From TrEMBL:
Source lineage: Bacteria, Pseudomonadati, Pseudomonadota, Alphaproteobacteria, Acetobacterales
Binding site for Mg(2+): D11, E60
Record keyword Signal present: no
EC number: 2.7.8.7
Protein name as annotated: Holo-[acyl-carrier-protein] synthase
Keyword Lipid biosynthesis on entry: yes
Gene Ontology CC entries for this record: cytoplasm
Domain 4'-phosphopantetheinyl transferase: 9-88
Cofactor: Mg(2+)
Top-level taxon: Bacteria
Family in the record: Belongs to the P-Pant transferase superfamily. AcpS family.
InterPro entries, A to Z: 4-PPantetheinyl_Trfase_dom, 4-PPantetheinyl_Trfase_dom_sf, ACPS, Ppantetheine-prot_Trfase_dom
GO MF term (any one): magnesium ion binding
Signal peptide extent: none
Originating species: Limobrevibacterium gyesilva
Length: 132
């Protein structure tokens, strides 16, 4: 039995939008949306607004792939986008993990695939959930 796609989602966001929120709300904004592990940028010279915009897009894309959006028991901190310099991974907990469990066909194992990218103005993410 081969692999099947059980969800896909994408998101696109202007970096300046997140930069404004960071300036306006600071740590309170970060703590509401991101876990401690997500708030640890790797590497020097990282533009934090770009870093957080990619993570924001990854969360939105994953929530869409789960078919819930950020509702129905799936919260911002239930989806973690963990970034290194060249890649990102997803880690789900609480409502997001439960939703993934519901979506995964009996006898199969779900795999989360995420890609996050950015340029000077925008960030985007694409998430595919497959099961094999």
């Amino acid at each position: 039995m081969g692999s099947v796609i059980i969800g896909a989602g994408t998101d696109l966001c202007y970096i300046e939008r997140i930069r404004r929120s960071l300036r306006r709300f600071g740590d309170a904004y970060l703590e509401q949306l991101f876990t401690k592990d997500e708030r640890a940028p790797h590497g020097s010279g990282v533009d934090l607004a770009t870093f957080y915009t990619r993570a924001f897009c990854g969360k939105e894309a994953c929530a869409k792939a789960l078919g819930t959006g950020l509702a129905n028991g799936v919260g911002w901190r239930d989806i973690e986008v963990l970034q290194t310099q060249n890649c990102a991974t997803l880690r789900l907990s609480n409502g997001a993990f439960e939703r993934l469990r519901q979506l995964t066909p009996t006898g199969r194992r779900a795999t989360l695939h995420v890609t996050c990218a950015s340029d000077q103005q925008m960030a985007q993410a694409f998430v595919v959930i497959s099961a094999f």
